[in-house]
Amino acid sequence: MEEKDLGADLASVLVTAEQIQDKLAELAARIDEDYQGRDLLLVGVLRGAVMVMADLARTLHHPVEMDWMAVSSYGSGTKSSGVVRILKDLDTDVAGRNVLVVEDIIDTGLTLSWLLTNLSSRGPASVEVCALLRKPDMIRVDVPVRYVGFDIPNEFVIGYGLDYAQKYRNLPFVGTLAPHLYA
Ligand code: PRP
Fold this sequence. Notes:
Layout: H1 3-6, E1 10-15, H2 17-34, E2 41-46, H3 50-59, E3 65-73, E4 84-88, E5 98-106, H4 110-120, E6 126-134, E7 147-151, E8 157-158, E9 174-177
Parallel strand pairs: 2-3, 2-5, 5-6, 6-7
Antiparallel strand pairs: 1-9, 3-4, 8-9
Helix pairs in contact: 2-3
The structure holds 1-O-pyrophosphono-5-O-phosphono-alpha-D-ribofuranose (PRP).
Residues 45-48, 79-80, 103-112, 163 line the site of 1-O-pyrophosphono-5-O-phosphono-alpha-D-ribofuranose.
C-alpha cells in the first residue's frame, strides 16, 4: 500500500518508511553488539509486531531464533485492561534463554507489563524489550524498554503492523487516521 491508496482516510504520515528502516538498522546494530556471543530468541507479539519482527530480524547479523505469542485482554474488549489471556503461547522453552520481546507499540504498557511478568516466571537468562513506537502520554505502568524506535504523540496511528478495524497493517509507514473514521 501507498499513501495515495488511503485517500481521505489518512490524516498525516507520522513516521516515513525510510525513517522506520533507518531506525531499525540503528536498533539492530545495538542489539548485535549487546548480544555478541550469546544466543538470542526474538519473541514477536501478534499481530501488530509482524512487520517490525520481519524487518528487524533481517537487519540483524546475529543468527536469532524467532517465536510468536498472541495475547488478548479480558473484559470490556478494550486492549488496556491489563488482564491478559494467552491465545497462542510460545512453542519454545525460554528457560535459560536470552529473550527479546518485539512489539509494534507500547500504549499504556499494561500488555507488556503482564507479558514480562509471565515470561520472567519461565526462568529465562534475560528478558528485554524492543518496541518501534511508544506513547509516553499514555503510559500507566513503568516497563523497562531497552530498545525504543520513536516516542509519538497520543494519536490514533495506523500502518506498519498497526490496524484500524484490522485494516492498514500493510502500510510501509506509520500514519494518523482521519478523525471522521473513528469520531
Ligand atoms: C497492541 C500492541 C500491543 C498493545 C499495546 O496490540 O501490539 O500489544 O496493543 O497496548 P498497551 O500498551 O495499552 O497494553 P493489540 O491489542 O491492538 O493487538 P494487535 O497487535 O493484534 O493489533
